[in-house]
Amino acid sequence: MKVQIVYSSLSGCTRRLAEGIFAALPVADKQIFDLAQGEPALDADVVLLGYWVDKGGPNAAMKAFMEKLSGKTVGVFCTLAFWADSAHAHASLAAGAALLKEKNCLLGGYVCNGAMSQAMIDRFRAAGTSGPHSASPASEARWALLKGHPTEAEIALAAERFGERIRLLETLQSQGLEYASIAL
């Protein structure tokens, strides 16, 4: 089974998560690509796509890449500077899956806390201290807390999730069965 990971990262969080998943996947034939270096040719059995959340979904470069994919078995993962168990986080992951689900098989997904890029923090600070994307005291506290994310535990959980799904895919294929796309 060949696995390719393609990611887009702003603050380094998605890159760190992608590299952690890559290192931990128990697959011999695997490759990892930074979308900033150009769009890779995809010839893998499984493609894992990672993005940083921008305006409630994949950042522009990853969104454009996702929209081109067809006939692939894909997993999606994302990082955001908000709580990974929030409705916003789940909607941000679902927005990425929505770009893929009609023309691809969804293997699964993972959403992870990530640090806010300093450029974004500076922009929000310049906007003041009120409003949903402001530098309010609560936002400042959240940004400080999330600087250490993704953690090793979060990276391990993402790798475990995708590793399990890949093993299930292999098992089903060996029995002549299809993997049913997961609704995210």
UniProtKB/TrEMBL annotation:
Domain of life: Bacteria
One term of GO molecular function: FMN binding
Gene3D superfamilies in UniProt: 3.40.50.360
Coiled-coil stretches: none
Flavodoxin-like domain span: 5-160
Pfam families xrefs: Flavodoxin_3
InterPro entries: Flavodoxin/NO_synth (IPR008254), Flavodoxin_CS (IPR001226), Flavoprotein-like_sf (IPR029039)
Name recorded for this polypeptide: Flavodoxin-like domain-containing protein
Organism listed in the record: Candidatus Ornithocaccomicrobium faecavium
